[in-house]
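Postdoc handover notes: sequence design on the structure in folder B. Input tokens:
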């Protein structure tokens, strides 16, 4: 658990107002059509416009207490009832504190929770809506509820009881676990990773309120320089002169098929008339399930991808997205897209079965592979974001490299699944030349080499960053 400046225990940066529509004077309409999903048609003529997209609500939320007031706030926190945060709670506090969930200003009160759970949106005071598809809530148990009593404020503390935030004007309400799970995941089947980690054994009450975070969140794991807030990302993107930002989320190593998609997207944006499209390569940095490659190894692999020239460092910003992973498919992918609006992205690349997983009980995928991109095209509050569906890439045996799949010569293509990729790395076998850059593949092989057997459990060893 972290302490403040909030610090995580040890385990490289590449660098609420009403919504407003862009003024016509801010943009020019190109005559080039770009394949993109919209709520009314599958092919839209997009606008080339100067400047970054506005955040949800018109203004980024910053919930970190200003430095001159921190000593005073820490004294206040010391005298308040305490709620101890789990690691995942602290990851969500990090998300809230930096404005990824703007215009949300703290853990959800009941009205916000119900709007999110049942409508995938939040209503703003001016009558407009913003997308919000996953509940960001804080659970407490009966004992904590009793200790809070009639207090309207609580101190949020880490595992060592160090105050790290204050929750103000609190509201405590029932935690409808079954309803929350069913609405978020579409199933209550046992074995959902996030549910087992963060919900099943959590308290039967939820506490919401306005958040004041006492210091910026730091993890002290060698990766903090990659953790750029939405404000910092916008500053970096403006510094680079970005006139379009296309975001690519991932929780896996980058192979050359991913790189082909990202470089082709930039080419298409240039053809549209954009002068300097910038890629936001944005790996997820919060909770992931046990068989995913750990964040430190993924970041090391991403570095090699840039070092080997697979992606251009001049037009790529690599940063860590601090959110936990829910594996909630079409529901969760809306959250991933919405958060990138707040970071300045106006294009979002979406692939097959985004945020999906295998069904925890049955031998099938939990979600339809196409529903994620379809839902994004219709989701309320995401109308300003241009959704870019994946083009299918596979290994072209005739060219010896990753290429876009051509169904007229399907026999020439080899599909290498994530399962196959992991099996090759575990067995120290090489994939076909051109599947992944050699430096990136070596990192993946080294990771699986580092797994040490303890009984029947394989544990990843930590690596130097």
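Designed sequence:
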């Amino acid at each position: 658990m972290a302490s403040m400046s909030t610090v995580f225990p040890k385990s490289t940066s590449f660098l609420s107002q009403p919504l407003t529509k862009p003024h016509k004077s801010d943009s020019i309409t190109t005559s080039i059509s770009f394949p993109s999903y919209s709520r009314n048609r599958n092919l839209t003529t997009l606008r080339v416009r100067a400047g970054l997209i506005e955040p949800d609500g018109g203004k980024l939320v910053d919930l970190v207490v200003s430095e001159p007031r921190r000593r005073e706030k820490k004294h206040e926190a010391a005298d308040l009832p305490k709620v101890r945060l789990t690691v995942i709670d602290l990851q969500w506090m990090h998300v809230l504190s930096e404005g990824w969930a703007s215009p949300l200003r703290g853990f959800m009160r009941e009205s916000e929770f119900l709007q999110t759970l049942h409508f995938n949106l939040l209503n703003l005071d001016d009558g407009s809506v913003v997308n919000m598809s996953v509940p960001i809530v804080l659970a407490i148990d009966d004992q904590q509820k009793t200790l809070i009593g009639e207090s309207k404020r609580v101190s949020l503390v880490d595992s060592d009881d160090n105050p790290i935030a204050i929750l103000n004007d609190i509201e405590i309400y029932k935690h409808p676990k079954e309803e929350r799970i069913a609405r978020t995941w579409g199933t209550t089947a046992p074995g959902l990773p996030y549910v087992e980690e963060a919900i099943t054994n959590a308290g039967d009450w939820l506490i919401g309120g306005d958040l004041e975070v006492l210091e910026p969140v730091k993890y002290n794991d060698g990766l903090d320089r990659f953790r750029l807030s939405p404000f910092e990302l916008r500053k970096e993107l403006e510094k680079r002169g970005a006139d379009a930002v296309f975001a690519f989320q991932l929780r896996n190593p980058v192979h050359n098929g991913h790189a082909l998609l990202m470089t082709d997207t930039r080419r298409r944006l240039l053809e549209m008339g954009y002068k300097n499209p910038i890629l936001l390569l944005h790996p997820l940095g919060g909770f992931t399930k046990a068989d995913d490659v750990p964040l430190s190894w993924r970041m090391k692999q991403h570095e090699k991808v840039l070092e080997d020239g697979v992606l251009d460092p001049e037009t790529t910003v690599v940063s860590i997205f601090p959110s936990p992973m829910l594996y909630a498919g079409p529901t969760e992918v809306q959250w991933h897209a919405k958060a990138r609006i707040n970071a300045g992205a106006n294009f979002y690349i979406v692939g097959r079965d985004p945020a999906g997983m295998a069904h925890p009980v049955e031998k099938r995928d939990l979600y339809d592979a196409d529903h994620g991109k379809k839902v994004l095209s219709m989701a309320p509050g995401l109308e300003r974001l241009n959704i870019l569906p994946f083009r299918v890439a596979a290994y072209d045996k005739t060219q010896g490299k990753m290429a876009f799949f051509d169904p007229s010569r399907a026999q020439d293509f080899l599909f290498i699944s994530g399962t196959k990729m992991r099996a090759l790395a575990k067995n120290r076998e090489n994939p076909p030349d051109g599947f992944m850059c050699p430096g990136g593949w070596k990192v993946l092989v080294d990771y699986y080499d580092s797994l040490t057997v303890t009984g029947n459990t394989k544990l990843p060893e930590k690596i130097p960053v």
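Context for whoever picks this up: The longest strand covers residues 163-174. Don't rerun without checking with the PI first.
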